[in-house]
Amino acid sequence: MIKQLFTTFVAGLTLTVSAQLCAADLTDVNEIVKQANLAAYYQGADGRSEARMLIQDSQGREQQRQFTILRRDHEDGGDQQFLVAFSRPADVRDTVFLVEKHASTDDDRWLYLPGLDLVKRISAGDKRTSFVGSNYFYEDVSGRNPEEDNHTLTDTTGEFYVLENTPKDPDSVEFSRYQVWIDKVSMLPMKIEYYDVGDKLYRRVEVLETETVQDITTVTKSRVSDLVSGASTTMEFRFIRYDLGMDSAVFTERSLRNPPRQWLKRPE
Amino acid sequence: MLRSTLINISMNRPKWVFFAVLLLTVLAGLQIPSIKVDTDPENMLPADNAARVFHDHVKERFGLYDMIVVGIVNNSAGGIYNQQSLSELQQLSDAIVQMDGVVSQDMMSLDRVDNISQEGPGTIRFEWMMKQVPKDQAGIDQLRASVERLPLLNNTLVSGDGQAAGIYVPITKKSESYRISGLIQTEIGKLSGNNEYYISGLPVAEDTFGVEMFIQMAISAPLAGLMIFILMWVFFRSFLLITAPMLVAMGAVIITMGLLIGQGYTVHIMSSMIPIFLMPIAVVDSVHILSEFADRYRPGEDPKKALKEVLGHLFTPMLYTSVTSAVGFASLAFTPIPPVQIFGLHVAFGIMLAFVLTITLVPAYIISLSPKRMAQMKDHNIDEDDNSFLGRLLISTGRFSIARAKGLLMLFVLVIVGSAYGVAQIQINDNPVRWFKPDHPLRVADRVMNHHFPGTYNAFLVLDKTSDLRSGLEQTLLARAAKEGVELQQKLDSVKVESFIEYTNALINLFDQLSYDDSANETMWLDLLGMTEKAQIGSKYFLTPEAMKYVDDLQNFLDQSEYVGKSNGLPTMLKTVYRELQGGAAEQYRLPPTATAAAQTVLSFQGSHRPNDLWHMVTPDYRSTVLWLQLSSGDNQDMSRVLTLVEGYVADHPLPDGVKLNWAGLTYINVVWQDEMVNGMLKSLIGAFFMVLLIMVVLFRSIKIGLLSMLPLTVTILFIYGLIGLVGKDYDMPIAVLSALTLGLSVDFAIHFLERTRAIYRQCGNWEQTVAEVYKGPSRAISRNAVVVAIGFTPLLFAPLVPYITVGFFLATIMAVSAVVTVMLLPAVMEMIKDKDSLFGVKPGMKESTHD
Questions:
Q1: Mutation target among A54, A65, A91 for the B interface, most CBs of B within 10 A
Q2: A68, A87, A128, A129: which to substitute to probe chain B, counting the most B Cβ within 10 Å?
Q3: Cβ distance of A229 and B612 shorter than 8 Å
Q4: ipTM of the complex in this document
Q5: Cβ of B160 under 8 Å from any chain A Cβ?
Q6: Tell me: the pLDDT tens digits for B371-392?
Q7: Are B555 and B572 in contact (CB under 8 A)?
Q8: How far is residue A72's CA from residue B836's CA, in Å, rounded to a whole number?
Q9: Would the CA dihedral through B668, B669, B671, B672 be positive or negative?
Q10: What pTM does this model have?
Q11: Which of A51, A121, B334, B754 yields a CA-CA distance of 20 to 30 A from B473?
């Protein structure tokens, strides 16, 4: 509730006293990172949305994926639960991912494959692997823990806070650094650019469209581009709802074989 | 007449001739710096060749690139499974991935691939196989166990014996492989451990060949020139005399090469040999002129008179020998291989040019000499007398041929029979790696790598499912919509994409939206959506159990063959991931039971670091799949055996309905152009044979002598190819090209020999006397020319590249053999022909004067 108030407040500011905003620029990088993390991954107490992914390879060939994401926060900036249920292509329909995201320890991940009638636990391992063959990583979907990187505020422009980020454990990731542009109003990270060990820009994540849903500025279209191969994935979110009042029980192993239709169903 | 005009101009206006030739040479010479070397054997096929187009299309569809394979070998007991070897591998791989021209995302080595493994019951783990080199032996043992569990990696990234690891470096352009392999070599130089490093792969061989070819050209051509120069000096002992033929040779070579380069043609392996072919051929005619001129010219006389006589006398035979040689080379235009066509036509041009230069430049040169120098020329008597070694040898040869005519004929018949047997034994085979000498680093790398690994040569077996999916679906959809009175055609037409999967995706999105917007017809839209989804699942053909099983069975069959080291494909990946999903037990290594199970197995695989590896095995619509075969031999013969094996398999196990099987990969492409060449060469050889025969008949105005003149070269060619068959030398590209051009070169001897024999017989009318005469002058000229040409090719023997050596050796042999056959066989055959008057066209009482 507090959070919702906060966003309303921010939105109100944008409309009326935008001039004052400049004066109110944040300078504490940790505060910026914290707010951005909340704006990007912790909107509302819970939420649902339907995602349509268009994966385009370097030759322009397209594949599509469609799934519904349910999310519930234990606490803002802390532990979260995710359930991702696939609806298309039809041959992977009802495949489900379940994630218990922990702020301080490794996440727990499960996978249900209906065609094999199989529930598998997926070892924490590396979260920077492809999300179902797209250019998104698991970590892009569920959020990278801000504690894993060192952040510095390198620039504050009229629109953005520009942050430079380096991993605390370089061996755990494939990038050497990344730059992120955070919208000063919505606090959403609008663009992230990753550099490899040779300091060559090789990957870009960007927000293409946002909408205000239940007073929350929400990303409705984003894209990840693999700048080396020329492939990219565009993800569109529709039928977004926050604060549905989902119960923790929605996110248990039981839901893998018996998806919670009540929440997956498109809201009227 | 053209003849007299040319000769008159050159004798009366020598300066014009010099100037014109110089101008042409300079113009052509200016083109040479823009030379472009092309070493890509793929260009042996025209760009629109079906196999080549398919090959390129496969590379594009499956995102396949030409690959350099770097091998790290450690022969100690633990092989490469030790910290130091693995660290070096990682260091090298880190350096290579940063290089320009390397397709970094597709590079394969231990530190860039994924491991999929079990982590306790019910838990599966995806992680980098070797993100960091393990710190202890236990970690290294674990790594080894992991690699050996994964069929896609085992024996590809690390050899079965554990002694060798491979880094597979895909490169954007094949023409970059020499440069990139040089960079890799530099990186290897920075490593200090006790590992051995090897760089192999067809692209490297092909590109390296090009670079060495260029160096080779710069060395061999001048060397051949020098050799001919020395040789002529030995014969004539007069720089004065030798200068003229050398000028003709240089002019012909520079103008021909300038023409080729100026037209924008690339210099391919064959055309790089043009200077070496042209030089000996170009000097031969000048030698004839000079020999005869020195014979006839008396100091104090007007040189023009002697020159006119000589040229009048030699013009026809020189023209005909040039035309026949040119025809031999030009016949290469009948082969379907563009670089060979360009080579043949340009050498043909060069030969005709050399002829024109000989009858213009040489007379102009002689006329320009001061009387003093002219007198000097006489001092160096060109003609050896009958008592010289060569002279005596030839005279006794002549006596022998006539005396033992029957025996000789028998001997030649035996040689022909033996040769025919040899020809039947010929093994058609080639392998670009074998274009290097056995001790070349590339050959060594090839041997070592293929000893440890199942193979570094790639062939791709492609299966395509074709059927018209769209119209079937559209009919079903339209019928369903018609029931509700809804007009659907327009909506279907609004979706404009080629691929069925994208078409159905678009329809699914459309119907999904309409079921929402047009809720009155919701049920119908959902029905249509269901139908479309069903059609889409069905369209993913290579995920269906029937298709998976066929591919898997084919793969199992291939893996058992001794010619296929290893095969990788979609079934390998499906079975591996399925096994790990099912708990990792060996008995679970099998295909997913249904299409949806397969689709979900694929989805699991796509949660790895390298999801796109999937698209190297199957296209995103799952209607084309490729098997990557690793072959340990790049010999065309071995590739052909694999083709035959698969053909046999498909005959016994017919392909599923609508599935087409095709091949791609450099190893396969080499087989294709070799087949084209073998057939093309046969055509070109037959074509050249009849062309030359026709020219001979016209020249001699006699069918009998025409046929007779073809005899020595027929025997020679049969003998040489019989020898190749008997010795077991592979019939490869250079050998194939030799056949047609030999024909044009070796007929020269017969022309000179028969022309002179007939002229002498017509004068004296006595066979014995004719033979005695022929074995003096004409035979000596023939022998000398054979020696000049044969030795002119010998610099090729010192080439570092095998095709040049082959060409040099066989051309020299051919020249020698055909000279011997000409001077021995022809008199023997003529001895056996009773009616000499009829043979030489002598009417009773007629005595012919010399040519005008």
A1: A91
A2: A129
A3: yes
A4: 0.91
A5: no
A6: 777 766 655 554 555 667 777 8
A7: yes
A8: 112
A9: positive
A10: 0.87
A11: A51
